[in-house]
Amino acid sequence: MSKTGLDISYVEDVLTKNNYIPEENIVTVVFLALSLKKPILIEGPPGTGKTELSKAVSRAFNRDFFRIQCYEGITFEHIVGEWNYQKQLLNLEMSKIKGTEEDVFREEFFIKRPLLSSFMNENDSVILIDEIDKADEEVESFLLQALGEKQITVNDLGTFDLKNDLMVIMTSNSQRQLLDETKDRCLYLYIDYPTFEREVEIVKSHVPDASLELIEVVVRKMQKIRTLSLVKIPSIRATVDWIKSLIIFGKNDLDDETFNKTINVVIKNEDDKDKVFKSFKLD
């Protein structure tokens, strides 16, 4: 039991109960992040469960969930909020008609975006800053400053203090190098594609009605597919969808005919599909 009263085995247990099968390093980093109140930076290939971990932490610890989906060109307004200019103009016009003065720089005229909403939330929360590597360094620096100071200042509106125990989880696909300061402030976690044993457990948790035999056959195929040089390597979600598709067809095995019929559930590129077919024909 840590000084915070949080037990590492409890972290593993509640994540598992909330449909996330963690590895030891994942449990350790989540435990330390909660205990030290530090952000987590998660890197790894797409489709390995980086985003899902943040949702699982939110469910497991009964925290409200907020998400910033980063993209090229994202700005302060997209992250924090912006003035509702139409509402402001309408109220100014109405005040002219009534002969009164209207202050349109109030909170009711401001549209809150995820970061400000998460700061002002009364309940303990999790905010996911997804694919932060797609945002530019200026946005990254702003996020770092706001999270470090636990304050957000909006021109003409004021400064907002953090009102809850906000857990911050950032993900990156390494599209660009993040600032050293970001890395220094965060606990680091790399999530790779799962081992055979872990992927079997993950699929079982998502498709409990599937037979163990079917799950193992499909996961074994998927593990081999991921060793190929593909444009789009299939995610864990694709494995789950493949199992579900086979169940719909009433299959308890993956014969050649069913493999060919359902491969589009997994492979989303024609060249990749050719590589997969060629690889399995050589077996």
Commentary on this structure:
Helices cover 48% and strands 14% of the residues. The protein is built from 13 helices and nine strands. A five-stranded parallel sheet has the order 2-5-8-1-9, with helices on both faces. The protein has a two-stranded antiparallel sheet with strand order 3-4. A two-stranded antiparallel ribbon has the order 6-7. The N and C termini lie far apart (51 Å). The chain has helices at 8-17, 24-36, 50-60, 76-79, 85-98, 114-120, 137-149, 180-185, 196-206, 212-225, 236-248, 256-262, 270-281, and strands at residues 40-43, 64-69, 81-83, 110-112, 125-130, 151-154, 158-161, 166-172, 187-190. The mean pLDDT is 91. The protein folds into two domains: 8-190, 3-Layer(aba) Sandwich (Rossmann fold); 196-281. With 283 residues, it is an alpha/beta fold. Helix 1 crosses helix 3, helix 9 packs across helix 10 and helix 9 (196-206) packs across helix 11.
Query: Would you give the CATH topology of the largest domain?
Result: Rossmann fold
Structural class, judged by helices and strands?
Answer: alpha/beta
Query: What's the domain count?
Result: 2
The fraction of residues in strands falls at 5-15%
- Any idea what the radius of gyration is? 23 Å
Q: Roughly what is the average pLDDT, rounded to an integer?
A: 91
The CATH superfamily of the largest domain is known as P-loop containing nucleotide triphosphate hydrolases
Shape: elongated
Strand order, largest beta sheet = 2-5-8-1-9
Fraction of residues in helix: 40-55%
